[in-house]
Design goal:
The complex is a heterodimer of chains A (195) and B (244). With 195 residues, chain A is mainly alpha-helical. Chain A is built from three helices and no strands. Helices cover 88% and strands 0% of the residues of chain A. Helices cover 69% and strands 2% of the residues of chain B. Chain B has 244 residues and is an all-alpha fold. Chain B has a two-stranded antiparallel ribbon with strand order 1-2. The chains are: A mainly alpha (195), B mainly alpha (244).
């Protein structure tokens, strides 16, 4: 407002200067020749303007604005509803995901248990089988151990017999040969601390 | 004599002389620019009002922004009771604004630079507001001249001052607009004359001044239309909501 007042003062002072400088022609504004004409035409033009604006144009603009306002309100309402719906959907979705995760965990645990129990079962069976096999083999080894000196003896005497036969050309008493071989073996076993 | 800075305000007859009895109602250049301004307003706002897009285009936006601008101005200054007078204030604001703006075109005529035009508008507003005040409040409207909370000794003086200020409203309202318009256009004419008389050597200074003045005058053209309308709203507010 202050600015306007200052501007006015400035203009007023300038206005008086301008009027004085133009004293020759004077101010056409103060010449009443066309005052009535101006009033008449002002009334006509402004009256027409006012009538047409107020009767036809302004109501239409206001209707447009109102319509837009309503439309926007409606849109906001719809958007709000949709937002709520989507939030609900999101919640449901989260729930479903959580549920399925839990289920997957359960299934996994069950499967693991099953597999573990099966593995232990199989392992135990395998252990048993292995044990029995080992026992059998051990038995066999012991048997072999026990029977091996006798066999070696007979083989040794047989070989000795044969060697003698080839060397001398005659049969030797079997029992004496085996006695000799046995003696030799005993000596050998004593020197090597036996088997 | 085109060099006279007041020459631009001359009113002259266009076409034949129209006389009813002794009264001269001839169509003048002033009348021509009143008609042009009114027609321009009607065409622009009619175009703007015909479209019903949800997302407005330029011309629609222009008319709708003007509508909301004026309606906000009225509701801010005069409250919701002033709604029935919206059309009048809108027409008034647009008419003054367009007359001012058309006056900014070189060699055109500024309707509002004539005291008789602004005075008729202001007098119409003054009489209308006074009638509205008396209709709404009866003789209670006279309480407008008696402010509350004034010591009894000062009261006669204050009442006289209030009455004088009330009666001077149409004069201040009309002279403000007329003087602003006339002074601005005269000043521009004077500086334009300097450009010519100083020639190519010294003419640049007044020319640049003239350019700056043109911008200022466009601002003033809008501002004065706004002030005219908002003062009307304030007077209307006094008549509608008597709060003293």
């Amino acid at each position: 407002m202050k600015k306007i007042i200052l501007l006015n003062i400035f203009y007023f002072s300038f206005c008086t200067v301008a009027v004085k400088s133009a004293e020759k022609g004077g101010m056409p504004q103060l010449d009443p020749e066309f005052w009535v004409s101006q009033i008449f035409w002002l009334t006509i033009t402004f009256g027409t303007l006012f009538l047409v604006l107020s009767k036809f144009i302004l109501p239409r603009i206001s209707k447009n604005l109102e319509q837009r306002r309503l439309q926007i309100l409606e849109n906001i309402e719809t958007a709000e509803k949709q937002r709520e719906q989507s939030e609900k959907n999101l919640k449901e979705f989260d729930e479903i995901i959580l549920k399925s995760k839990n289920k997957a965990k359960e299934v996994m645990l069950a499967a693991r248990e099953k597999v573990v129990s099966e593995i232990t079962k199989k392992k135990m069976k395998l252990d048993e089988d292995l044990n029995s096999e080992i026992q059998n083999v051990e038995k066999e080894i012991i048997e072999l151990k026990l029977s091996s000196p006798k066999k070696i003896n007979s083989i040794a005497s047989n070989i000795t017999n044969e060697v003698i036969k080839r060397l001398i050309g005659t049969d030797v008493n079997e029992s004496s040969v085996s006695a000799l071989v046995e003696e030799e073996l005993k000596k050998l076993s004593r020197s090597t601390n036996g088997i | 004599m085109a060099a006279n800075p007041m020459y631009q305000f001359n009113v002259y007859r266009i076409g034949p002389e129209i006389k009813i009895g002794e009264i001269d109602l001839s169509f003048t250049n002033a009348s021509l620019f009143m008609v042009i301004s009114s027609l321009a307003i009607l065409i622009i706002f009619n175009l703007g009002a015909q479209k019903k897009n949800i997302i407005p285009d330029k011309i629609q936006l222009l008319s709708e922004l003007s509508y909301t601008f004026v309606s906000k101005m009225i509701s801010d200054t005069a409250g919701s009771k002033a709604k029935p007078y919206f059309s009048f204030i809108f027409s008034l604001f647009m008419f003054v604004l367009f007359c001012n703006m058309f006056g900014m075109i070189p060699y055109s005529f500024t309707v509002t630079s004539h005291i008789i035009v602004t005075f008729v508008l202001a007098a119409f507003i003054f009489i209308g507001v006074t009638i509205i005040g008396f209709i709404k409040h009866g003789f209670g409207y006279l309480k407008l001249f008696v402010p509350s909370g004034v010591p009894a000794v000062l009261l006669p003086l204050i009442v006289v001052i209030e009455i004088i200020s009330y009666l001077s409203r149409p004069i201040s309202l009309s002279v403000r607009l007329f003087a602003n318009m006339m002074a601005g256009h005269t000043m521009m004419k004077v500086f334009g004359g300097f450009v010519v008389s100083l020639g190519i050597v010294g003419g640049w200074l007044p020319l640049s001044f003239s350019v700056a003045l043109t911008g200022l005058e466009i601002l003033v053209a809008f501002l004065q239309a706004y002030v005219f309308a908002i003062l009307t709203c304030i007077y209307l507010n006094d008549a509608l909501n008597l709060h003293h």
